[in-house]
Amino acid sequence: MKLKSEFVLRNFADKYIAVSVNDSADESNAFITMNKSGAFVWELLQNDISYDEVINAITNKYDISIDTAKADFDEFLSIVRNAGMLYE
C-alpha cells in the first residue's frame, strides 16, 4: 500500500493536515488532520509498504502492543481510504 502522490502533509503548530495539491482538490474536498503519530505513519506510507511492516515500525517507535498498533493503524487506514488517498 502507498499514499497517492497528489496528497501532501503540512504542519501547522501541533497539527498535521493532509491535502490534495492537484486541480481536482475542489471536487474531492479531501483533507484529513492528524497528530504526530499519524504524521509518522503518513511518512511510512510515502513508499510502498506492507501492513505488517507498518505495524512493526509503529511498535518499534512507540511503546505499544501489537494489538493497539493494529487497532490504531486500522482506524488510520479507514480514514485515508475514505478520503481516497491510498493505493492498495
User: Based on helices, strands and strand pairing, what is the structural class?
Assistant: alpha+beta
Q: Give the low-pLDDT segments.
A: none
Which range does the strand content fall in? 15-25%
Globally, the shape reads globular
Radius of gyration using CA atoms only: 13 Å
Helix content: 40-55%
Question: What order do the helices and strands follow?
Answer: EEEHEHHHE
The mean pLDDT is 90
Number of helices: 4
**Major beta-sheet overview:** 3 strands, antiparallel
Strand order across the largest sheet: 2-3-4
State the end-to-end CA separation.
4 Å
Write the layout of secondary structure elements.
Layout (H helix, E strand, L loop, with lengths): L1 E2 L3 E6 L2 E6 L4 H4 L2 E4 L1 H9 L6 H11 L4 H17 L3 E2 L1
Helix pairs in contact: 3-4
Model description:
With 88 residues, the protein is an alpha+beta fold. It has a three-stranded antiparallel beta sheet with strand order 2-3-4. The radius of gyration is 13 Å and the shape is globular.
